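Memo to structure team: turn this sequence into structure tokens by end of day. - J.P.
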Amino acid sequence: MTELHPVPQSRRERRALEEAQRAAGSAAEVRTVVTPASIPASLLTPIPTAPRVAPVLAVPVKVVKRAPRKKFGARILPAFAMLFAGALLVGVSVPANAFIDPEVDAALDAPVAKALPGQSLAVDELATTVEITRDEFKTTSYAERLQDRYANPSYSYSATSGAVRWPFPYPVPISSGYGQRTSGCNGCSSIHHGIDFTPGAGAPIYAIASGTVSHAEISNSGLGNQIMIDHVINGQKVSSFYGHMASKSSPLKVGDTVKVGDLVGLVGATGVATGPHLHFEIWLDGAQSNPYLWLKANAVN
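Reply from structure team:
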């Protein structure tokens, strides 16, 4: 059986229906019953019952992926591979003579023309023995060349008694000359700016000419205890230097006036030295010069 309910058709009818329901709910003692007889037939419509719907079941959907498109090279590679395989098969199965032209083969089998005779030369004509000689040579080290040049020269001289003299009143051996030489010790110079007299330890040293002391130094390094005297010889400033003298052996000081032949000091080995000797230098106008050559030219009787 279908239950009938009034369905409002207009806004006014719906509002009247709502007010009637509120009034019915608020006044419990007063109950208004709306019967179908009081509602117009046009407002009564059947309320259909909702049909029963079968539940929807989830059906799995299969996703099909599209295969990637091959590149052009990948598509033509099998064709080239098949062509290569076919060529290889032909090459290994067909005899080689099948590709030879008969005319070319006949030309290859033709006899080769005989070469014309060339010039001939008898080997006996050149069978002459040539004797080769090699010049003899000798290697010499740099140190040996310096030894030959500077270590063994002749430094002979005679003692003089004039205005310019040698630092000793008698000939004294000279162990090392002026110029380049082999270094005799650790710290010794390979460029010798003077000459070395070796009369023995304690031998007296004399001034070569009259002059004034311009430098006096006491030292345990380098040239050791040293004295320099300035002279004027033939109108030129000449300075004589005396080094490696024994300690406390020189009575001179800067400013002292000396005469030719005065005592300068005693032979020693102060400073850097391999043994007792006098290191003697000559300076001409402030420049070093070869003392041996200068004394040979100026020390006269």
